[in-house]
Amino acid sequence: MMDSEFVITAPPRVSIPVAGEQRRFPVNRIFCVGRNYADHAREMGSDPDREPPFFFLKSPEAIIADGGPLAYPPQTANLHFEVELVVAIGSGGADITVGAALDHVFGYAVGLDMTRRDVQDVAKAGRRPWDLAKNFAGAAPVGELVRAARHPAADDAITLEVDGSVKQSGVIGAMIWSVPEIIAALSGYQPLHAGDLIFTGTPAGVGAVDVGAVMTARVAGLPMLTCAVIPAV
Description:
There is one protein chain. The protein is an alpha+beta fold. About 15% of the residues lie in helices and about 30% in strands. The chain has helices spanning about 40-45, 115-125, 130-135, 180-190; strands at about 15, 25, 30-35, 55-60, 65, 70, 80, 85-90, 105-110, 115, 140, 145, 155-160, 165-170, 195-200, 205-210, 215-220, 225-230. A hairpin with a 2-residue loop joins strand 13 (about 155-160) and strand 14 (about 165-170). The model has no long low-confidence stretch (mean pLDDT about 95).
């Protein structure tokens, strides 16, 4: 008799902690919004006009939770940080309206969209997909989730420090597309499911980190995220 329904050992379920609770939030898919702050769009050489939002994905294996370190990834010499507000979906749906979007939110966290910038630049120059620039082990450090009793306000600060020096600083209200608009747009492409995470974009100031750097990410009202970069394993 088989002792499992699978022909190989199933990978463990990826999850992130919920502030003040023992039970954890299981991660399903990770969606990321590109160029959602005008100042960041400009620094990346793009037009910050309010074009329809576009999305890319990371796999759950990209998550670093519980304050774990980030092992410097292979195939890059230019690893960049991007601090972001992360939205956790608690109930799914398709074609969700802007007015109903926040009803689908479980909670919020601060996260880092780590990027192999040199890999991305080469892919862009060749008009090729840049999945491997965004999706790798450790590409998505995430802090503790806070349940959505309070939704982030427009004047809530979002910041990133490296070794105590502020590198990124902005406010949530500077997003081109708001959280409800992001959820509505994304759910028009495919149904959202409970357990999905959405990284909502980063303000200007992105830059490189090397081994030994300590990144500290903050969104006002949410638990701080600290992530140290360690040598490749």
